[in-house]
């Protein structure tokens, strides 16, 4: 009887999640998430067997590949409504008209240099959706919707699997359900996938480290191998997450078997090799600077004080800090669809108060090594966001670090939030007060997100 009730609750929850995801995706036009255009192009390359980027016309390095010509037209046309200066009034008509285009089955070269640093495996759901759509010769709109559905479903499935291993605290879930987090989770980029994989990595670490097989026998399990694979993909997709390599190190240090040390070293080797390959072979023509990334990297490593002075000038700027806060919570689209300032204040206060309460009641001495590791990963990953942009996206010397967006901080903040409260596998949110807070936060977040999207793009007219 108890199992039937639990199964019924799971079915209801899954139904509600699918219903909410469907409603959100109906309100977001194609190609309106940052860098979605190049992610879709890279996925199309992979879908017909081009695993790595190809050199461009200047032959300076890998920067693009062959993409279906009509998919390029669809993507570039939808980019016409992105940005603050673009008119959004005709969005429904544009989506309807462009969506009728079929696959050309002819390919043109397209630049997608910014994706050259990512392992192809992270595009598996995107590539599968485009592959199926091309074989069925569907319209561009149908192809896009199938691809988005596969990407979103994959992200939700990964996150659902993580929640079976570990129930995060209230703050953690609030961070996952801000308007920005929900918007990215329901867009076919890699942001939602990376977030879901980070949550699963946290759950797997807590599960593995508390298992009898690990603690009493020191054996290497398939869960642990899966954890190492997740961290490899995450570090390749988000280099600022390199501090997550501390997790395998902590496992190996606690139970140093030959098999585990070999697995960790092999994973480290693959991670470093891929990142080195991506940096050395990818040519990004979008960034024109006086010095190369390697030159700037070496300079900041030799003179770390120079970088920290640059960082201090950046975060000391009030307007930049405000942009980080607003874009973390809800400057949607290509930074052209902001939620209201009142909503930003409500979310900021709710998250801050929740964090303070949890910090006050957390038994910090219990499981302190894990808490310290979570905190270190989160803080170091945050610093690496600024460092990565300073060496790859800014000229040298620079007055401030430009290009950082609030959404970049979500995964580091999740690691920091994971250090608070319970740090054990299993468990569930059972306190009525926590359930009320989460329900209210989620309802308000969904209201703000849907009303903002409806007012901006008016996509509802396509369905109602």
UniProtKB/TrEMBL annotation:
<protein>
    <submittedName>
        <fullName>DUF2142 domain-containing protein</fullName>
    </submittedName>
</protein>
<dbReference type="Pfam" id="PF09913">
    <property type="entry name" value="DUF2142"/>
</dbReference>
<feature type="transmembrane region" description="Helical">
    <location>
        <begin position="436"/>
        <end position="457"/>
    </location>
</feature>
<feature type="transmembrane region" description="Helical">
    <location>
        <begin position="343"/>
        <end position="361"/>
    </location>
</feature>
<keyword id="KW-1133">Transmembrane helix</keyword>
<feature type="transmembrane region" description="Helical">
    <location>
        <begin position="373"/>
        <end position="393"/>
    </location>
</feature>
<feature type="transmembrane region" description="Helical">
    <location>
        <begin position="405"/>
        <end position="424"/>
    </location>
</feature>
<keyword id="KW-0472">Membrane</keyword>
<feature type="transmembrane region" description="Helical">
    <location>
        <begin position="189"/>
        <end position="208"/>
    </location>
</feature>
<keyword id="KW-0812">Transmembrane</keyword>
<feature type="transmembrane region" description="Helical">
    <location>
        <begin position="7"/>
        <end position="28"/>
    </location>
</feature>
<feature type="transmembrane region" description="Helical">
    <location>
        <begin position="263"/>
        <end position="281"/>
    </location>
</feature>
<feature type="transmembrane region" description="Helical">
    <location>
        <begin position="149"/>
        <end position="177"/>
    </location>
</feature>
<dbReference type="InterPro" id="IPR018674">
    <property type="entry name" value="DUF2142_membrane"/>
</dbReference>
């Amino acid at each position: 009887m108890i199992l039937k009730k639990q199964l019924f609750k799971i079915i209801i929850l899954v139904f509600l999640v699918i219903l909410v995801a469907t409603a959100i995706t109906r309100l977001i036009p194609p190609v309106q998430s940052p860098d979605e255009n190049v992610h879709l192009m890279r996925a199309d390359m992979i879908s017909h067997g081009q695993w790595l980027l190809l050199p461009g016309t200047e032959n300076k390095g890998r920067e693009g590949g062959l993409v279906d010509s009509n998919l390029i037209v669809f993507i570039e046309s939808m980019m016409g409504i992105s940005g603050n200066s673009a008119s959004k009034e005709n969005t429904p008509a544009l989506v309807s008209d462009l969506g009728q285009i079929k696959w050309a089955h002819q390919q043109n070269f397209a630049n997608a240099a910014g994706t050259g640093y990512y392992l192809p495996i992270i595009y598996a759901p995107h590539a599968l959706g485009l592959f199926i759509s091309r074989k069925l010769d569907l319209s561009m709109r149908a192809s896009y919707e199938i691809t988005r559905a596969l990407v979103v479903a994959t992200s939700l499935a990964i996150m659902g699997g993580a929640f079976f291993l570990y129930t995060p605290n209230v703050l953690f879930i609030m961070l996952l359900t801000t308007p920005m987090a929900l918007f990215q989770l329901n867009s076919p980029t890699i942001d939602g996938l990376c977030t879901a994989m980070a949550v699963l990595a946290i759950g797997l670490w807590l599960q593995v480290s508390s298992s009898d097989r690990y603690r009493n026998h020191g054996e290497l399990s398939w869960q642990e191998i899966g954890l190492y694979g997740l961290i490899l993909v995450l570090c390749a997709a988000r280099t600022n997450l390199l501090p997550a390599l501390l997790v395998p190190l902590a496992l190996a240090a606690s139970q140093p078997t030959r098999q585990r040390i070999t697995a960790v070293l092999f994973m480290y080797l693959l991670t470093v090799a891929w990142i080195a390959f991506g940096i050395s072979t990818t040519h990004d023509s979008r960034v024109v600077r006086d010095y190369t990334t390697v030159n700037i990297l070496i300079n900041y490593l030799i003179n770390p004080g120079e970088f920290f002075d640059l960082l201090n000038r950046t975060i000391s700027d009030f307007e930049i800090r405000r942009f980080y806060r607003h874009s973390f919570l809800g400057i949607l689209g290509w930074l052209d669809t902001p939620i209201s300032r009142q909503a930003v204040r409500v979310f900021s206060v709710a998250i801050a108060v929740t964090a303070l309460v949890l910090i006050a009641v957390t038994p910090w001495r219990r499981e302190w090594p894990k808490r310290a590791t979570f905190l270190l990963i989160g803080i170091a990953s945050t610093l690496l966001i600024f460092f990565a942009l300073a060496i790859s996206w800014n000229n040298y010397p620079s007055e401030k670090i430009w290009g950082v967006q609030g959404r970049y901080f979500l995964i580091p903040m999740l690691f920091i939030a994971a250090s608070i409260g319970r740090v054990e596998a299993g468990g569930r949110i059972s306190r009525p007060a926590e359930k009320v807070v989460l329900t209210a936060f989620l309802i308000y977040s969904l209201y703000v997100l849907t009303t903002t999207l409806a007012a901006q793009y008016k996509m509802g007219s396509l369905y109602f």
